[in-house]
Each structure stands twice: as structure tokens, then as C-alpha cells.
Amino acid sequence: MSARPLPSSPPSAQGVDATGVLAFLDAVESTEAIEPHSLMILRHGRLVTAGWWQPYTPDRPHLLYSLSKSFTSTAVGFAVAEGLIGLDAPVLSYFPELDAEITDPRSRAMLVRHVAAMASGHEEETYDRAHALDPDDLVRGFLLLPPDHDPGTVFAYNQPATYALAAIVQRVTGESLTAYLRPRLLDPLGIGEVAWLTDRSGREIGFSGLHGTTDAIARLGQLYLDGGVWEGERLLSEEWVAEATREHTATAPGVTADADRADWECGYGFQFWRSRHGYRGDGAYGQFCVVLPEHDAVIATTAATDDMQAVLTLVWEHLLPAFRPEPLTGREDADAVLARRLAHLALPQAPGAPAPPERGAQ
């Protein structure tokens, strides 16, 4: 199915200063380290900015890298609400065939909430070691690798943690993530075709590999911004939205002042990052779903860059000040300039970062 168009509005009618958006476009295009692919901005539930740079188009699916994790989190939210998953259940309890060989007490104590919050107890990424232990079943390899600390006590960005989370959803539902999300999330939001990479076991990998449009990113962000409600209908529980997007695990325990934090030092939720402003779904090379409750706004971007902090810094520098508390009057000319600029974004850009190996993506 094709996506229903999002309701749109001139930026000024929603209190968005078009000159700030233009300044953001100038900044990302003039930053050598950033190859922009797309930008969508929603304010008060209305699409106020949408543009794509050549060869990217509105209907072209984009590899979302670890922004896929936020869709996996959403699947977990539905499964929790349906009583299929318990956050305080041991991960091992969903894989009883492994019970006899998983003997390490920390592995056995690892709960669903721990892997959701990147707090499995491991000190660092485990993908290569877990894959070496079992190339055919990453869950088994992961559980065979004893955590360095008690689960729930330390943060480590860890692809097998999300893989295990996704595997639990697929086991308890008997469906792929995509099939499970289709009637609960994708169709209700008007999201068209998506594709998720699978591994040799046939599982959709969960931690990366989802291909979707920028529009799909924006719609997910709007659902979370509205507390799980879409077009007046509750899809996702308000409790899940709150839990998934609050800090569960400190990512930089020694840094407490927001002004001193990079955006990866603000804490981690359930497959969402906290930010200096709001929170975000986050994928390698500049795939972002930034949700700003204090501004009632969603910013969706895709890009190719090795400097992801630079993208967010430009968002904070140019787009945040563009969000005003009231509609702006007499700004039709600025709106028109932005509309013309967006219509002519499809210009060749300088080469960006090379595509990384899929398993190593953030």
C-alpha cells in the first residue's frame, strides 16, 4: 500500500521560521563531512518541510542502520501490551532449549529489560565474539558469552542485545518483525513497503537492516510524540512510550551537566537515545528520528556522514531557534523561498562516507 500523505502546512502557520530551516540547509550543504539525503520536519502534527537530495526521492527506501532498533522497540511495546513478553522475565526463559548449556549466573540473570536498555552487563560490543561462538545462532553465542558485570549495571552498545530482543518477539509471535508490525504499526500509520534484512537463521536481525522511507521515520516519531496515539486512535500504550524514551542506562556516568554532554552521553532508553534536547532514534551515518516534545516537533533525516554529532549540532544551532511558540505573521515570502529551495534540492552532492559492513552499523 502507498502511504497516505501527511497533513502539511506553511512553516509560519505552525510557528516555524523558514529562515532557520534555510540556514540549516546552507549549513549541512556547506559541511564537507556531511552528505545530506533527506529532511522532513513536522510541527504540531503538520509537515512543514520535506526535501530530498539527488538521487534520493520520497519513495526510495533508505537503509536505516540502527534506527531500525527503535522499530524493534516498538514491536516489543506491542508484545508487552499483549502479554506475550515480560520485561522482568529472563532472556533465557524464551529459549528453553539453551537452558542446560547456559550456566553463567550473570547470563542466566539477564532480563528482557536489560537487553532493551543496552545493559546486558558486557563492557563492550559482543557481536564478533558471539558470532564466533555460534555462527548459526547469535542468541546462543550471546548467551554463551558471560557478562563482565551484573546485568543492569553498565552500558555497552551491543548489537546482540537487540538481536536477542528481536528474536524474542519473533519467537513469541511466530512472525517476523515486519509481519508483526504490519497490522499494528505500519498499516495504521500509512507506511508502505519496508524490507528488513535476515540472517542465516531466517530471523530479521532487529539491530539494523530495516529499509524504509524518510516518511516512515517521520511517522514513527510523530506516533511517539503523541504518546502512542495516531489520528485519534491509540496504537501504542502511553506507558510504553514513556518507558522506551526515558533514561534507563547512563551512557556517561561521570558527566552530569547537559551543557557538557555530547548527544551520546545523555543516556539510553529502550532502543532510543536521550539527547541534549528530547530523544531520538539513531542510525549510523546520519539516520535520525529526533523527537522534541518541548517544541511539539519531529525531525527526520537521512544522510551519509562519519560525523553524526555535526548533524545534531546543526539541528540544535539552526532548527531549535526556528521553533516559535506562536504562528508567525507576514512571513509568506520566507515560506515561499524555502518552498523553492526544497523543490530544487535534487542537485549532485559531493561523495559521502562509504557504506559500512551491515553488522558493524550503529
How would you portray this structure in words?
With 362 residues, the chain is α+β, with helices and mostly antiparallel strands. The chain has one domain (11-81, 171-360): DD-peptidase/beta-lactamase superfamily (Beta-lactamase, 3-Layer(aba) Sandwich), CATH 3.40.710.10. The chain has helices spanning 18-30, 68-81, 105-109, 112-116, 127-133, 138-143, 159-173, 177-189, 214-225, 238-245, 308-319, 332-343; strands at residues 34-43, 46-52, 62-63, 195-196, 210-212, 229-230, 233-234, 273-274, 279-283, 287-292, 297-305. A six-stranded antiparallel beta sheet has the order 2-1-11-10-9-8, with helices on both faces. Strands 3-5-4 form a three-stranded antiparallel beta sheet. A two-stranded antiparallel sheet has the order 6-7. A hairpin with a 3-residue loop joins β9 and β10 (287-292). The longest helix has 15 residues, at 159-173. The chain is elongated, with a radius of gyration of 20 Å. The two termini are 29 Å apart. The model is unreliable at 349-362 (pLDDT under 50).
At the third CATH level, what is the topology name?
Beta-lactamase
* Span of the ends, CA to CA: 29 Å
Largest sheet: 6 strands, antiparallel
Q: CATH superfamily membership, which one? A: DD-peptidase/beta-lactamase superfamily
Shape: elongated
Strand content: 5-15%
What does the radius of gyration come to?
20 Å
Can you count the helices? 12
Number of domains: 1
Which architecture does the CATH hierarchy give at level 2? 3-Layer(aba) Sandwich
Instruction: Flag low-confidence runs.
Output: 349-362
Number of strands: 11
The assigned structural class equals alpha+beta
The CATH class label is: Alpha Beta
Physical arrangement of strands within the biggest beta sheet: 2-1-11-10-9-8
Average per-residue pLDDT, rounded, comes to 94
Pattern of helices and strands: HEEEHHHHHHHEEHEEHEEEEHH
- Summarize the amount of helix as a percent range: 25-40%
